[in-house]
Amino acid sequence: MEDIKPFIEISRTKLKQASILWAEGFREACCLHRVVLLCYRSKKLLIRTGQCFLLNGFIFLGSLFVLNSVVIPILQWILPDHYTQTGCAEMSEFHGVFRFYSFLRGFLIQLFYVFWFYPLYVFSFILSNLWYNDIATHGFAAMGRSGPSVVESSKQNDKLTSDSKAHAARPAGLGGIMIGIGEQVYATGFIPYVGKALNFILLSWMYAYYCFEYKWNFTEWGLEKRLDFFETNWAFFAGFGSPCVLAIFFFSPLVGYGLMAILFPLFVLTATGTEAEQVTSARRRRFSSADELGKLPIFYAADTLLMRVLSLLPSESQGRMQDDKTL
């Protein structure tokens, strides 16, 4: 029992440090007042953010609300499953009719999905991703201003915006590939008992990475530096991504997508205004080096798989991709 006490003490200290960093990340993600300030500084940012709300909130989620609250109840009234006033004997006579009504109602609802929701989902996905890039670009440009202004004609700001767009448009090394592989590797939702909890944590890391990736593109962080910083401060990023996941975790996929499409640009902007290096280093200074949290290899599986893929590529392609990785 005495031999276990040091281990328990160390574990308690590390758990405390992880909890503090998680809380810091969660707090930074919830600093939505930064979004208001940045939108006040940039008219273009305000317009793009408003368009995101209009498409994904009013049109997409509004359509879901109309379907569930208006269309489906009307179809159930016109094509009912049963009549409450009908006796048992009469019910048996109309059983085939009710089954046909049920089939027809389901068919009409599926037509609504096929010809409206699924095309709208694809359209929203493509357009939102383009807008996210614009939102991150304008937000990054607005961060460089000394005071609030809605005028976008300054040469310095124009240069910053054009440079930021160039960085955002440039591929982020192997980051997109690794995260794409990581999404498949970390599909843990169906693991019994602990699957949901693991899924929540991994989704939190994924969304946190996505939010900070725009900023890291603008500041020209190489992939190796990004992953090292992310895995070293895994507790902070788990906390930062938690509000994103909380907003969608308990809803259906379509509702969750609509909510995420509205909230994601807000968290991208809070990530743009977050000085993660200063926040994490300030917290770490409160603990001794022996008690520091270790690096957690979150992307180990994805990185290993990616290296296998790279080994199959021609040597010239490997060289170009390795150069991107070390930028």
Automatic annotation (TrEMBL):
Is Transmembrane helix there in the keyword field?
Answer: yes
Q: What is its main location?
A: membrane
Key words of the record: Membrane, Transmembrane, Transmembrane helix
Report the subcellular localization: Membrane
Q: How does it sit in the membrane?
A: Multi-pass membrane protein
Where do the TM regions start and end? 53-78, 98-118, 193-212, 257-276
PANTHER family, per this entry?
A: ETOPOSIDE-INDUCED PROTEIN 2.4 HOMOLOG (PTHR21389:SF0), P53 INDUCED PROTEIN (PTHR21389)
What is the protein named? Protein EI24 homolog
Q: What is the lineage of its organism?
A: Eukaryota, Viridiplantae, Streptophyta, Embryophyta, Tracheophyta
